[in-house]
Design brief:
The chain is an alpha+beta fold. The chain has a single domain, classed as GIY-YIG endonuclease (3-Layer(aba) Sandwich). The protein contains 4 helices and 4 strands. Strands 1-4-2-3 form a 4-stranded antiparallel sheet, with helices on both faces. A hairpin with a 4-residue loop joins β2 and β3 (34-40). The longest helix has 12 residues, at 78-89. The radius of gyration is 12 Å and the shape is globular. The protein starts with 8 loop residues before the first strand and ends in a 9-residue tail after the last helix. The mean pLDDT is 93.
Length: 98
């Protein structure tokens, strides 16, 4: 199942202001593909790190992200939900899961 939140936001500093400082999973994409699916206890802060390249997967910037979306998920369920989305959406910058 794709992201439950159907809202999309620009992968910019002003777009990331729309993300919550809460537990969940997020997806970063460009017009052609999903680039990266991640999880965090603070979605907004983690997206900010990706935006500026701090502690971030270099393949994210290499693929010229244009947008993101997110889904609020309890901490105990974040990794499982992230892995489901990675298997379903096959983002370019995540390691493939079996």
């Amino acid at each position: 199942m794709p992201f439950k939140n159907q809202n999309v936001y620009g992968f910019t500093a002003s777009g990331i202001v729309s993300a919550p400082s809460a537990s969940g999973v997020y997806g970063i994409y460009n017009q052609a593909a999903w680039i990266y699916i991640g999880e965090s206890g603070d979605i907004a802060a983690r997206l900010g790190e990706h935006l500026v390249g701090t502690n971030s997967n270099p393949d994210i910037r290499k693929n010229a992200p244009t947008g993101f979306t997110y889904e609020l998920v309890l901490a105990a369920q974040r990794v499982q939900r992230q892995d489901e989305l990675i298997r379903e959406l096959m983002p370019l910058a995540n390691k493939k899961l079996g």
